[in-house]
Specification:
Helices cover 31% and strands 29% of the residues. The protein is α+β, with helices and mostly antiparallel strands. The chain folds into 3 domains: 84 residues, Rossmann fold, CATH 3.40.50.20; 61 residues, ATP-grasp fold, A domain (Dna Ligase, domain 1, 2-Layer Sandwich); 182 residues, ATP-grasp fold, B domain (D-amino Acid Aminotransferase, Chain A, domain 1, 2-Layer Sandwich), CATH 3.30.470.20. The mean pLDDT is 96. The chain binds adenosine monophosphate.
Length: 364
């Protein structure tokens, strides 16, 4: 079986690493000549919308998936008219636009922070009379890892924040003082079988994920499962879906969802019976889904901007290093480590050690 992947970054690389033992072969389409998944399959080098490369991919791949959500809708639709594509163009379309995504949540009774659509300085000023400060202004499309976002603390911030957006349509939403951020990784296969991973508890800094910890037996698990099930069913979704949530006053509010494998699920590589990457492949190939049971207490720490010294990291008990084969650059995710422990206290100590290594090399 040949799996085509749009994008050949670290997520594609980890999908391939999980698929090779299953006898799968991979073709990646990516504009970057040194994209880090390249060595794990064939690389079609060129633009995502290059008609010849897309035709090649569609002809040769038994199924096509992707590692990022900003695939142009017409590309996903073209591929879908020639081969199997999972998740669907519809799921991509919803996740690509924060306004459509939020109204989709609302239609499914999934609560979000209060928000309003904004397309001019006037409409921003008007929206702020109901949203209130503090708030966050986010571009509707193309935003990730906190990019295209401004915190609005008072009226004085509005002009500058609106200028930064350079006129692109946006949403403004209340800045919620959450108790914690969590995400749920769910998987649905072609036949409709669904599995959920235990919640990930996520720590962000500067809008970028730093640490994810598996939260087994979390009191909010059922609520998160209920929300994400509605998304999976409504979209007739196939593959891994990650739903990011804020916990506020004992309730979960949806922030956004990613129609793909997700950074907050990397702990599943060594920390769950079946990794999110393997389950994504099983789902899109309509194979039975693997157990999501955690193996011990598990967590993941990202390395951003710089690489750890391998020997130092591997000296930490039960730590596993995942290098992405990417050149270090400020703010760029270049590796992560997973770690397992027998107790919560031991896990906290190991996360501390790994985070110290990550902080040493992070120059952002
Ligand atoms: P996003 O790009 O929407 O995932 O935002 C990146 C990060 O910014 C989130 O993971 C939160 O840490 C923070 N953030 C985004 N929206 C809000 C909000 N409405 N209230 C509080 N924090 C937020």
């Amino acid at each position: 079986m040949i799996v085509g992947v749009l994008g050949a970054g670290q997520l594609a690389r980890m999908i391939a690493l999980a698929g090779i033992p299953l006898g799968l072969e991979f073709i990646f389409l990516d504009p970057s000549i040194d994209a880090c998944a390249n060595r794990l399959g064939e690389h079609l080098h060129g633009d995502y919308s290059d008609p010849e490369l897309l035709a090649q991919l569609a002809e040769r791949a038994d199924v096509v998936t992707y590692e990022f959500e900003n695939v142009p809708a017409e590309v996903a639709e073209f591929l879908a008219s020639h081969t199997q594509v999972h998740p669907s163009a519809e799921a991509l379309g919803v996740a690509q636009d924060r306004l459509i995504e939020k109204s989709f949540f609302h239609d499914l009774d999934i609560p979000t922070p209060p928000y309003a659509a904004v397309d001019s300085l006037n409409s921003l000023e008007l929206a702020m009379t109901t949203i209130g400060y503090p708030a966050i202004l986010k571009s509707r499309t193309q935003g990730y890892d906190g990019k295209g976002q401004s915190l609005l603390k008072s009226k004085e911030d509005l002009n500058h924040a609106w200028e930064l957006l350079q006129g692109v349509p946006a949403v403004v939403e209340a800045f919620v003082s959450f108790k914690r951020e969590v995400s749920i990784i769910a998987v649905r296969n072609v036949s409709g079988e669904i599995v959920f991973y235990p919640l990930s508890e996520n720590l962000h800094r500067g809008g970028i994920l730093r640490v994810s910890e598996c939260s087994a037996n979390d009191p909010m698990q059922k609520q998160a499962e209920s929300y994400v099930s509605r998304l999976l069913e409504k979209l007739n979704y196939v593959g891994v879906l990650a739903l990011e949530l804020f916990e506020v006053d004992g309730q979960l509010l949806a922030n956004e969802f990613a129609p793909r494998v997700h950074n907050s699920g990397h702990w599943t590589i060594e920390g769950a019976e079946t990794s999110q990457f393997e389950n994504h492949l099983r789902a899109i190939l309509d194979l039975p889904l693997g157990a999501t049971t955690p193996v011990g207490k598990a967590a993941m720490v990202n390395f951003i901007g710089g690489l750890p010294v391998t020997e130092e990291l591997l000296n930490i008990p039960n730590a596993h290093l995942h290098l992405y084969d990417k050149a270090p650059r400020t703010g760029r995710k270049v590796a992560h480590a997973t770690v397992r422990a027998e107790s919560t206290e031991q896990l906290a100590e190991l996360i501390k050690q790994l985070s110290a290594l990550a902080d040493e090399v992070d120059d952002s």
